[in-house]
Specification:
This protein has 13 helices and ten strands. Among the domains are: 268 residues, Beta Barrel (Catalase HpII,  Chain A, domain 1); 69 residues, Catalase, four-helical domain (Hemocyanin, N-terminal domain). Helix 2 packs antiparallel against helix 3. By secondary structure, it is an alpha+beta fold. The chain starts with 37 loop residues before the first helix and ends with a helix. The model has no long low-confidence stretch (mean pLDDT 96). The structure holds protoporphyrin IX containing FE. Protoporphyrin IX containing FE binds next to strand 2, strand 3, strand 4 and helix 8.
């Protein structure tokens, strides 16, 4: 083939030039293809290995680059350099749906992932959140069961509301999250038009070692919008990739989306002042004021989907000095699970991939492993050593936390499973309530097991009598049976 004057030479992976990329080398005009055609063999081998395991959850995602600028002095709360006012920190953000496969339609009744990687001068910090302030369950030991019941069926490969509600009928703490899920916000039509939350409490630690518990909230400057149930068929019919096309369309047009970061702050001695457990991730912190500490702007579409969005690895355990985990039981499980799955999904040296590599220098004795390219050098690969000292500044030690009691396997005391679901329901407009009961009853009508159906209805009735009554009506249920079941539930 004639090559244009400015075209780049096609090469193999060893950089040697390719003469013909259209015809395999054969034994004569009618003979078989030759194994010695290493360009053909290499091309097929590389193609055969293009896919890696998709994320076990949040497989369908979209990424964008940008920056975070801190605007408030919170040195009384945290020594983290990322919070120094005026500091501009590069970020990579990955939005996602949760239950669908990697190529699944982006319109789904599903929470949306809102994962932010801050490339700070003190190392990478990840806030791996979602678009609501709460979650379905409060103990990591339940997470695989929750996901199995909500992912496509193990038999048909199709999501099945009957299986999901079989799990939720045994999970009263999910009532508030389910109420969010079936609201119009449960079907966002734009990643730009939703908020983000860190969900769990985290600890901020200041220079004196004082601890404050905080929750993070990204407030969209674009406002919040969802798809109403009546508009879902048309919306899905129009564009299966609505969310990505919306975000990238805005970025291409120079219409950069922004979110302000707010925090709620609690003193450790105030954790127990609520009638719910403040470290239970199924709860919002009611009546705790928020303060703004910075702004996130997205401004750049990655030019390689695989090397950014697919190879990015976010983990709640990835923190920097001044930010530590709380004792929230879900968060504690997450601290293990993400880096663990990433060593499987991407390999042990995934932190060396460009999208995950910190901007701050990495200096430690971790070494080797598949595909290592860290460039560490020197034969002192241990510590302590007089030949090559590595200092450790005590100001970066983990903060100490007082403990009490014996080891145990018990549920938390202050469960309060239903009240905040009712508060959320009552905060919705008349249209919002109508859309919620319309969408939720449509899925409850798929529940074939009578006991599960009445248990679910009793949860919603317990949250709010009007909410439960309307659902009972729309699912042709016996209201007095729902009321009796609800009366037997504890607060
Ligand atoms: C103990 C409970 C949980 C476990 C064990 C868990 C586990 C996982 C795993 C294994 C992944 C895939 C990570 C990867 O392959 O890179 C993931 C992704 C994700 N999870 Fe969780 N998860 C839990 C709860 C939560 C909660 C409560 C939230 C929200 C606050 C959340 C938000 C996310 C997000 C946003 C992603 C996608 C990150 C990305 O874009 O790459 N997860 N989770």
């Amino acid at each position: 083939m004639m090559i244009g004057a400015h075209a780049q030479q096609l090469t193999r992976d060893n950089a040697s030039p390719v003469g013909d990329n259209q015809n395999s080398q054969t034994a004569g005009p009618a003979g078989p293809v030759l194994l010695q055609d290493s360009q053909l063999v290499e091309k097929l081998q590389r193609f055969d290995r293009e896919r890696i395991p998709e994320r076990v959850v949040h497989a369908r995602g979209t990424g964008a680059f940008g920056d975070f600028v801190s605007t408030a002095d919170i040195s009384d709360l945290s020594i983290a350099q990322v919070f120094t006012p005026g500091t501009k920190t590069p970020v990579f953000v990955r939005f996602s749906s949760v239950m669908g496969y990697r190529g699944s339609p982006e319109q789904a009744r599903d929470p949306r992932g809102f994962a932010v990687k801050f490339y700070t001068q003190q190392g990478n910090w990840d806030v791996v959140g979602i678009n609501w302030p709460i979650f379905f369950i409060r103990d990591a030991i339940k997470f695989p069961d929750f996901v199995h019941a909500n992912k496509p069926s193990a038999v048909t490969g199709v999501q099945d509301a009957n299986l999901a509600f079989d799990f939720f009928a045994h999970t009263p703490e999910a009532t508030s999250m389910l109420t969010h899920l079936y609201s119009d916000e449960g079907m966002p039509d734009s990643y730009r038009k939703m908020d983000g939350y860190g969900v769990h409490a985290f600890k901020l630690v200041n220079a004196n070692g004082d601890v404050h518990y905080v929750k993070f909230h990204w407030k969209s400057q674009q406002g919040i919008e969802g798809i109403r149930p009546k508009d879902i068929p048309a919306s899905i019919g129009n564009d299966w990739n609505l969310m990505t096309n919306d975000l990238y369309g805005a970025l291409k047009a120079g219409n950069d989306p922004k979110w302000d970061l707010y925090i709620q702050v609690l003193n450790p001695q105030d954790l127990d002042k609520f009638d719910y457990d403040a470290l239970d991730d199924t709860k919002v912190w009611t009546d705790v004021p928020e303060r703004k500490i910075g702004t996130l702007t997205l401004d750049r579409i990655p030019d390689n989907y695989f090397e950014s969005t697919e190879e990015s690895a976010f983990a709640p355990s990835r923190m920097v000095p001044g930010i530590e985990p709380s004792e929230d039981r879900m968060l504690q499980g997450r601290l293990f699970a993400y880096a663990d799955t990433q060593t499987y999904r991407l390999g042990v040296n995934y932190n060396q991939l460009p999208i995950n590599r910190p901007l701050a220098p990495v200096q430690n004795n971790n070494q080797d492993g598949a595909m290592n390219s860290s460039g560490r050098h020197g034969e002192v690969n241990y510590e302590p050593s007089t030949l090559h000292e590595l200092s450790q500044d005590p100001k970066y030690k983990y903060v100490s936390t007082p403990l009490a009691g014996s080891t145990q396997q018990r549920a938390i005391h202050k469960t309060l499973d239903f009240r905040q679901a009712g508060e959320y329901y009552r905060s919705l407009s008349a249209t919002g309530k109508l859309d919620l009961v319309t969408a939720l009853s449509a899925d409850l009508n798929h529940v074939t097991n009578d006991a599960n159906k009445y248990t679910m209805l009793s949860y919603f009735y317990k949250a709010d009598a009007d909410y439960g009554t309307r659902l009972a009506h729309l699912t042709h249920a016996d209201l007095s049976r729902v009321q009796t079941a609800a009366a037997s539930l504890s607060e």
